[in-house]
Design goal:
Shape of chain A: globular
Largest interface: A-B, 27 and 27 residues
CATH topology of the largest domain in chain A: TIM Barrel
Strand content of chain A: 25-35%
Distance between the termini of chain A: 68 Å
CATH architecture of the largest domain in chain A: Alpha-Beta Barrel
Structural class of chain A: alpha+beta
CATH superfamily of the largest domain in chain A: Glycosidases
Oligomer: homodimer
Strand order of the largest sheet of chain A: 7-8-9-10-18-15-14-12
CATH class of the largest domain in chain A: Alpha Beta
């Protein structure tokens, strides 16, 4: 027995072969293959634990107003438990030798077939694994298990609202509505599911992006626009499951020594966002609507209350009509002069006063409108295969055509629509939607590509069109375009992201809290400029916006690149920044703080534009040696020097903030805390006063902006003058909200105390 | 081209071979195999649409108080697209010829492996497909696609509460708690999931049974106790997915000309239930508890109000203790003389008065009790592999050992416990539970079988033990034992089923309505005697029992084999048959109707015992030519002569009933309706008066029991005397129920009217 083991050991050693190709190194013996990326193990294959599986399945993508129900029936799934490493060419004999260009590894089933040839290549700084060839059948499912360290953390995945550190869960890559509630345990999600099938889940997002960074200091970007599932539930592997035309898959990699370098390399690859226009720092962009007079009157009211206004965002510039969801914008992208008389003149007048006008557009055009008839006649919309005519998309109580951006003529036509908005005098717009509502099953594109692959890609195209329009008009540095939807290469096309339609509440999964991990995950996916609606957007049933929510949200957004308000989907039923004089006063102070920060806003913006360091950064970005910071998802660094811990729960008077090792100064009174690392490198948690208006913010003592930050201390005198009397205040000013909130409290009390 | 097609056609024809083995006929050509069962196509295999797949997976069975979370990760799934038909022996050369004994078909992957050898054999009336051999790897997943007609209907599956006609959904075969609410769209299910993970779903059941009958007049019974999934969602196949030790699988078949013959043959195969004891027809079995005096006082109160009582069921005979779920029985199966003084004497006294006593038992024994210590010392409990000691099962707030019924000594010991209950004087008991709570992952049985396979089998063993105990004591015709849990062969062992723990409400998925499809599906699975708790069982939060529910449930159960009440899990908070004098009066009338029906009850019972025609039958059982009846799940025939349409919603004064073509007489006033079939063979729907106490029931005019049924008409005089004033009545008699119901109404009104 002893002799046999020894001889087997020698045999194994004899078979150990190591070879390198660019960043990739291959170590193989008779039973296993290990692939390293710049000395990091990224793939480990053994015959007992194969890294690659091929399969056959049929999928269904049911679209319910942008909430997709996606399912797959699997027919076959085959372990490819054997492999050979080939030099460059398929079908050559097996010769393992070094090459600086590319390698091909053939994974195959014991019996020889099916098999897949994966090509490992390097171009510039990027190392790529791509599918070279598949033999043995028509396979449309690929599973690739990348090796994982049990302790490794993974971030990115586009805009992820619930989790920042992603391991332990699976993330489908499919652009769709984020949903209402987004947590199957909450009653809001329950009702949204019950009434409209629209509750969403932890992973539903407008902007999925198969881009991931690891604390083992590498990134992976999957170039593949069909559905994929990123399964991070296993201790020892990250499993990527790809559907449909799997031969198109490319996995791009690079490594780095620091987080800064990693993000710089990732954004080198994906493209970076230019700095937003500087007029934004003159104050808040105010979302108002209802017509020229109403809009100007509200802005004047705000200004006379001390609110600094940089822009007026009128989403209903093209007109309105009423549905059960609330008032809806008329999606025919032309000025409605009945609703907005003199708008052309007022835009110019206000601009001279330093205030810009912004509008709204999306890639859908409402049926039977003038623009629709024009575009339909020219065949500019995505078509239905069944009918051969324009594929109508159902938006609840109206239908739309969707501009086929793969048709060069349609692309040019719509670009001119955008340029027309600039010429009219708008300084930007919400460029809403992207792929979310587009059916994946019956849609015919000009370029002939499968609708299953175009669904996600559409978000990229829509961003690209917007960027090109402002670039060609030479207004990219003066225009504020904000988008919610994205996919793979979107960071290279999108100017500014906004977090979409949060509920007007303090819930973790869909309220104020959720936009913090959303910003962090976008940042780690290469999208450095994000922001959110002050006060959230979606209201229904007992979900109504309170003054506290508006102010808490606003005080957080002071410490983000952009401060913009939204009236929400039901303006009259919800608290607005202009609801009472007191709210105007409180919000005015926030706009003053925001403008006070202008030099720092500009500094942070340049770092995003020049290096790809996101504006809102996770703590580990600058404090990687502190093991406590890798799971923090509700705190962020705004730039390198401000540490922000937004208050995201109701009725808080103090709040805890974690300080990593550094010298910190409390923004509101200059208190210094010198945090010395403990033996493991950890910092400390402190509790600070957190009255409404004083969000917990610290700055680095050694910051170049210390003098600027010192100017915030005088603002601490602010105290809510009637916080003790909030209930009566609410009853007097908005009895509707009051009744809903009281009912909600009674309901929970009775149900949960039984 | 023309020439080629012709020659191919000739080639194909040449290859068509047909051969027969018992009921099975095989038709094959080069690319396809069709297998017929007595001229019914049951399996169609082509290389493009293979009928058999093998796979490898790992499963997890998480037990949360009997609510299992079952998931599987699939590693491989291989289409076995080729086949050969072998005569008798594996490895013989391919000779296709007739044989009366058995055939083997080898399905294999194109490349030769993996492969599975399925044996087709016939024994007596039963034709069987069994797994003979699997080659090419360690496979633990098998998918078998049986051919389906798109219009075919399928019934059975054990006890299915939501759907009677099963196609369009998947049914896991796993004994577990049925859950609370059982419909993810209801708020009750939502809270049950939120608070305890116990909401259940449409398929969760105590009694899954892989037995199915088809309207193409064949049955299939799968002998396989590991987890299986019966996927009836496809138009063209019924797919059975088997996990774990797939080599044990056996699929048994038979055919028939009529439903009667089919059920007779199915119950010939599974075994039939003997007639229940005739003393049951003396009245209702009253579920009461609390001690000798309290029990006797309540029964006396009921009797003096005119209630006919056949038995007193005291579930707490062994003592009680309190948990947050309510009062719980002390699971040490010995008389508690402190709580029930003189019980031994009272049993004898009451028996002379024609009233029996019944008790309660289950296969679990509470930790540290005298019985536990005794059995633990002898090693009579199922053990944990991890600890080597008794595997404790968590029942919420107490732990139990479970008797290892595979240990012959333990089996004998527990049988004697049951016999002891008979000797003490009990005339039956609720034999609660079965496999539901037994862990599938860490359990060691005396017989060494895998706990994953024993979980379901345990329910069969527990029923077998009960039947043997009463048979050996020669009291099978005098004893009423009722069980909720079952599996594969349970119909041959269980005496009477009861439907388990319904919510005390009018919900479709877990209330009064749900026990109707439950009874019908049990009947079509070969279990002919079922019944349910009058008024349901589970109460919590706003789910509270009203007088209306008790009376509606009672009036339905008059027309079932057994009338038995239950106080539910929270007796004080819920309406009881003894709550007011008026309720006693109303319930007294129902017991009178039930006893009035005695000759018919006996007639129906004999049909169950002698032929396996279930007591509660779907309409198609006797009216197969009417195409309207195949989807009816809330109406049934009690025996062949009574057509019952229970009122299962609140506040109904009229109710619709479907009458198939026949001469029908309305039970409550003798109105005759002669239903003549229309050109498609359909009957008609009529609306009848449905005051509480007058459930819609018709009898066949040609029934031998017409005279008996005519005696019901005088009872129609009954009217609820205060139905118009029910709210005040409730407030005065049970303010707790009143408050909950008012709150529930307000809650729904406010939420759903917004």
């Amino acid at each position: 027995m002893q002799i046999i083991s020894v001889s087997l050991a020698i045999f194994a050693i004899t078979w150990n072969v190591e070879t390198t190709c660019g960043l990739f190194t291959f170590k193989k013996n008779i039973h296993s293959l290990e692939i390293f990326l710049d000395n990091r193990l990224i793939l480990k294959h053994t015959s007992a634990q194969p890294a690659v599986h091929l399969g056959v399945g049929t999928a269904s993508y049911k679209n319910n107003h942008g909430n997709f129900d996606i399912s797959s029936t699997l027919s076959d799934r085959v372990s490819l438990n054997s492999f050979t490493v080939l030099e460059n060419e398929i079908n050559s004999t097996e010769v393992v030798s070094a090459s600086n260009e590319s390698f091909i590894v053939n994974f195959f089933h014991d019996l020889g077939t099916p098999s897949i040839y994966l090509k490992f290549s390097n171009e510039g700084l990027i190392s790529t694994i791509s599918v070279n060839k598949i033999t043995g059948g028509k396979y449309n499912r690929l599973w690739l298990k990348f090796w994982a360290d049990p302790k490794e953390t993974i971030y990115g995945g586009g805009e992820q609202f619930n989790y920042f550190s992603l391991r332990g869960r699976s993330y489908p890559m499919w652009a769709r509505e984020q949903g209402v509630g987004r947590n199957k345990s909450t009653i809001v999600t329950y009702f949204a599911d019950l009434i409209a099938g629209a509750g969403g889940d932890y992973h539903t997002t407008y902007w999925p992006q198969p881009t991931f960074v690891s604390d083992r200091m590498y990134f992976m970007h999957l170039d593949f626009s069909f559905f994929s599932l990123v399964n991070l539930t296993n201790e020892n592997c990250h499993e990527l499951e790809l559907w449909e035309d799997i031969a198109q898959a490319k996995f791009h990699f690079n490594t780095a020594v620091t987080w800064k370098q990693l993000l710089e390399r990732l954004t080198d690859f994906l493209g970076r966002q230019p700095t937003p226009p500087e007029w934004l720092y003159n104050g808040a962009v105010i979302g108002v609507q209802g017509g020229t007079d109403e809009v100007l009157q509200k802005v004047e009211e705000l200004q006379s209350g001390g609110v600094k206004v940089s822009g007026i965002w009128i989403q209903d510039w093209s007109g309105k009509f009423v549905t059960s969801f609330g008032k809806r914008v008329y999606w025919n992208w032309q000025w409605d002069p009945t609703m907005y008389p003199r708008l052309d003149v007022e835009i110019k007048r206000m601009r001279k006063l330093g205030i810009r006008f912004l509008s709204y557009i999306n890639p859908h055009v409402i049926k039977d409108s003038p623009m629709y008839q024009d575009a339909d006649a020219q065949g500019f919309f995505i078509k239905s295969k069944e009918t051969g005519k324009t594929q109508l998309v159902d938006f609840g109580e109206f239908d739309c055509g969707t501009v086929d951006l793969t048709n060069p003529d349609a692309y040019k036509w719509y670009k001119n629509v955008l340029k027309g908005m600039l010429e009219f005098g708008f300084s930007g717009w919400m460029a809403d939607f992207g792929g979310e509502y587009i059916p994946a099953e019956d849609a015919v594109y000009f370029n002939g590509r499968s609708p299953k692959g175009m669904h996600n890609s559409y978000s990229e195209l829509w961003a690209k069109l917007n960027k090109e329009a402002v670039t060609e008009a030479e207004k990219i540095n003066d225009t504020f375009i904000f988008m919610r939807s994205g996919f793979g290469r979107s960071p290279g096309y999108t100017l500014v992201n906004w977090a979409g339609d949060q509920n007007v509440d303090f819930s973790y999964a869909d309220g104020l809290a959720s936009v913090i991990p959303a910003a962090l995950s976008m940042g780690m996916s290469g999208m450095g400029f994000t922001h959110s609606d002050v006060g959230g957007y979606f209201s229904d049933l007992c979900v109504v916006r309170t003054e506290e929510l508006v102010l808490r949200w606003g005080e957080m957004n002071v410490f983000t690149p952009i401060l913009r308000t939204h009236e929400g989907n039901r303006p009259n039923r919800n608290w607005q920044v202009y609801t009472t004089e007191k709210t105007i006063r409180s919000f005015a102070r926030l706009t003053q703080l925001y403008t006070l920060l202008t030099p720092y806003h500009k500094f942070v913006a340049k770092e995003v534009a020049n290096h790809g360091y996101p504006a809102q950064r996770p703590l580990f970005f600058h404090y990687p040696d502190d093991p406590s910071v890798y799971d923090i998802k509700f705190q962020y660094l705004y730039g390198s020097d401000l540490l922000v811990a937004p208050v995201f729960l109701e009725a808080q008077r103090t709040w805890q903030i974690y300080l990593p090792p550094d010298r910190w100064v409390y923004l509101w009174n200059g208190t210094e805390i010198n945090v010395v690392p403990d033996e493991e490198g950890r910092g400390i948690t402190v509790a600070v006063n957190a009255e409404i208006g004083n969000p917990p913010v610290f700055y680095r003592k050694s910051s170049d902006f210390s003098q600027l930050f010192q100017r915030f201390a005088p603002y601490v005198v602010y105290r809510p003058d009637d916080s003790s009397n909030l209930t009566w205040h609410l009853l007097l000013n908005n009895p509707t909200i009051f009744i809903f909130l009281i009912f909600r409290k009674v309901f929970w009390y009775v149900f949960l105390s039984v």
